[in-house]
Amino acid sequence: MSDDGSSMVTADSGGDTFRDRLPDTRGGVEALLDGLVRENRFTIAVLFPAVGAVTLVGSAEGWVPEPFAFHPWFVLFGVCVMRSPLVVGILPLFDRRAAGWLGVLVAYTYAIEGVGVATGWPYGSFEYAIDLGPMLGGVPLALPVFFIPLVVNAYLLCLLLLGGRASNAAVRLLAVSATVVAMDVVLDPGAVAVGFWRFGEGGAFYGVPLSNYAGWVLSAVVAVFTLDRAFETDAVRERLAGCEFMLDDMVSFVILWGGINVWFGNLLPALVALAFGLGLLATDRFDAGLLTP
Q: Where is this region: Disordered (predicted)?
């Protein structure tokens, strides 16, 4: 009896010690997550996308056997890990206003994709060719995890590269919209090559119709409009200046989709991915903490 009691005390004490180490304030949680991402930058931003590129190419080429080829939960897990630096970077800026406007962007994401799947407008007639997890009205439930970080990354990169000019709303809108479309120049040909989705009648640009990019202009404009209202531009720029890993998800994008386009011989998309890499170099985002395990 006494042995059991002492064991319980020891276990409870250990549990109390562990709980005592957990932060009990929002600032403490943010600091904990910052440290976790900062200490694992190479794994998150380099190793994960490299493994992802090899796995997706292997699935497309038939090297990865079923049921592991294009396994939706493996894909989603990898995407969530690569998104974590962006999410942790944005977290200190997140309040009820940001939640409301990002909710609007999430709703737009589902609505425009649903219209696109049903009618072919505005991206062109397309269909999902592999399982991307649970669906909602013909649209992957996880779609915002794929789409919204892409436009947020473009927004952040432009704020860094434009400097003071980013304070001009018109300049910001044009720059971010062009960057979002350029990112899709990398993404869609790679996604078509590995078989994520396909356009019904193909397309002139590596199997992608040019109308697709007109659709992305629309989505980029909506994204900039909502992000401008979700966050204070000056606050975002201040957080960017002090958070070296905030664009690591963009690094993952370059490695993952740049590598896939190189493998399939998509020369122009690969060169655009390289240009994004050079842009990140210009912002000092390829630093020693990222490039060394």
A: 1-22
Rounded distance, CA 145 to CA 155, Å?
16
Read off the pLDDT of residues 23-68 as tens digits, 9 standing for 90 and up. 889 999 999 999 999 999 999 999 999 999 999 999 999 999 988 9
Kindly report the backbone phi and psi dihedral angles of residue 284, in degrees, each rounded to the nearest multiple of 5, phi listed first: 60, 35
Question: Are 185 and 258 contacting, i.e. CB atoms less than 8 angstroms apart?
Answer: no
- Give the separation between CA 163 and CA 171, rounded to whole angstroms: 11
Strand partners, 208: 205
CA 174 – CA 154 distance, rounded (Å): 11
CB burial string 235-263: b at 16+ within 10 A, e below: ebbebbeebbbbbbbbbbbbbbbbbbbbb
> Is residue 269 within 8 Å of 261, Cβ to Cβ?
yes
How far, in Å, CA of 260 to CA of 105, rounded? Answer: 28
Radius of gyration of the chain (CA): 21
> In 153-285, which ranges are E strands?
197-199
Q: Which element (helix H / strand E) includes 262?
A: helix 248-263
Single out the residue of 13, 33, 17 nearest to residue 25, CA to CA.
33
Q: Is 154's pLDDT higher than 70?
A: yes
How many Cβ atoms are within 10 Å of 34's Cβ, its own excluded? 18
Global confidence as pTM: 0.89
Cα dist from 155 to 132, 169, 235, whole Å: 26, 12, 13
